[in-house]
Structures are given as structure tokens and as C-alpha cells.
Design a protein that fits this description.
Layout lengths: L13 H6 L57 H14 L6 E6 L8 H11 L4 E2 L1 H4 L6 H10 L1 E8 L1 H9 L3 H10 L4 E5 L4 H7 L1 H4 L4 E2 L5 H25 L1
Parallel strand pairs: 1-2, 1-3, 3-4, 4-5
Length: 242
């Protein structure tokens, strides 16, 4: 018998099979078909995932009960936890001012004044020494009254405030001591870190607050406004129904 002339896969046509000295006339009915090959599917491209770190865009957000649905700011779960006790304490306080603004003397013309302006733009009533104190007023007595007649206290923590607190002889440190005795204080860190504050006033650093390292001062003012003005609206509603 002659040698088969077919390729490895077999004859490519019936005529070629018939002409083959080894296969001619045999395997009747056999027909060769070119094998089909299905290419392996390519693996799908990996979809990049966003970072879940605190600075990533997928950081968790929370909506506190006092924040309106159309709010322009977002809160982290930690901020909600930190602000909630202050709101609970403030809810029973019907006072002359929404906020007592504690600040360093050196900030009265710039950072503190800017913060005051932002808060008042949001409808917050602020006890601010540069505006509230009048010539000839007993400063200590006026500050004591301001502390008593404000729903909450805000401590604007700046480099100037840290310097004052290190000396521990300023009016600001006296205000801070009074505020720390109540759960009605929110530190607002501006151009300083919580680590720097902890080195100067560990007790104040334990009070969770807000920081302009995370959001602009304007957004901080909106959060303070939501905390106290929504509270005022709720209390007004309750009084009208009584």
C-alpha cells in the first residue's frame, strides 16, 4: 500500500482522497471539514476602584437628622457623632445668641471677623466681642453673660489661639475653661492640626470638631448654622403649638 498523501488533519477534498494511493476507494462517505477554532475570550479589563481612604472620593458620608435634605454640605459619620451631643445639650437652651465665638485677640480683625461674617450670613446670631462689646463695658462681666446666654460655644483654634493657650493667662483661656465644663463646645481648627491642638490642650482636642483642612470656612459656617438655626426653628414650632 502506498503512503498516504494527506496532511495531519486528513484530505482536504474528496478528489484528493481518491487520488491517494493509500486511501483511494476506502472510507467511503467520509468527508473532511476544516476544524474550527474558537478563540479563547479575552479577560475583561479590570475596572479601577476608588480609594476608600479618608481623603478619597468614596469616603463615607452621613446625613444628620438636623440637616435639611437640600443641604449644600456633606458630613462624615465622625462629624455627625461629634456634633450630636452638642445638639442634644443645646435643645433645651432658649438663649439670646445661637453661638458664642471664642477666639484669640490677635484674630479679632481677620480670621475671627471672617468667621463671624460667614455665620451671620447664614442667619446665625453670634456673640462676638468685636461687635457685641461696647465702649465702657466691663469685659469680664459681658463675657460671662455671653457664655450664659448662648446656645453653644465655638472655639476658633488658630496659631494665635495656640500661642495664647500656651500662656494660659488670656481672656480666651478663661472663656475656654468655662465652655469645657459643658458639652456645648465645638472646636473649629483653622490653619492648625488636631495634633498641634493636642500638644497644647489635650482636653479640647478630645472634643470632636470641624477643620478647614477638610473643607472651607464657609462650609464650616453652614454646618454650624444647620446645627443651631434648625434647632431654633423646631423650638419655635413647639412653642407655637403649646
Amino acid at each position: 500500500m502506498g503512503m498516504c498523501t494527506a496532511p495531519v488533519q486528513g484530505h482536504r477534498s474528496a478528489a484528493a482522497r481518491a487520488a491517494c494511493p493509500a486511501c483511494g476507494g476506502s472510507y467511503r462517505g467520509y468527508s473532511y471539514s476544516r476544524p474550527s477554532y474558537t478563540p479563547s475570550p479575552r479577560p475583561a479589563a479590570a475596572t479601577p476602584t476608588r480609594s476608600s481612604s479618608s481623603g478619597g472620593s468614596s469616603s463615607k458620608k452621613a446625613r444628620p437628622s438636623w440637616s435639611p435634605a437640600n443641604s449644600s454640605v456633606s458630613y462624615t459619620p465622625k462629624e455627625v457623632r461629634d456634633l450630636a451631643p452638642v445638639r442634644r445639650q443645646a435643645v433645651s437652651r432658649t438663649q439670646d445668641h445661637d453661638v458664642f465665638l471664642c477666639h484669640a485677640w490677635g484674630d479679632r480683625k481677620e480670621d475671627a471677623k471672617e468667621f463671624y461674617d460667614l455665620l451671620t450670613e447664614q442667619g446665625v446670631s453670634v456673640w462676638f466681642s468685636e461687635v457685641t462689646l461696647r465702649l465702657g463695658t466691663d469685659m469680664r462681666a459681658a463675657i460671662d453673660k455671653g457664655l450664659r446666654t448662648s446656645r453653644i460655644g465655638i472655639v476658633l483654634v488658630t496659631p494665635a489661639m495656640l500661642e495664647r493657650l500656651l500662656g494660659d493667662k488670656s481672656v480666651a483661656s478663661s472663656e475656654l475653661s468655662a465652655l469645657l465644663r459643658r458639652d456645648l463646645i465645638i472646636p473649629v481648627l483653622h490653619n492648625v492640626s488636631f495634633e498641634q491642638l493636642d500638644n497644647v490642650s489635650p482636653l479640647l482636642a478630645t472634643r470632636g470638631g470641624l477643620s478647614t483642612a477638610e473643607e472651607p470656612l464657609r462650609d464650616v459656617s453652614v454646618k454650624i448654622a444647620e446645627l443651631v438655626t434648625e434647632l431654633a426653628d423646631e423650638m419655635a414650632d413647639e412653642l407655637s403649638m403649646a
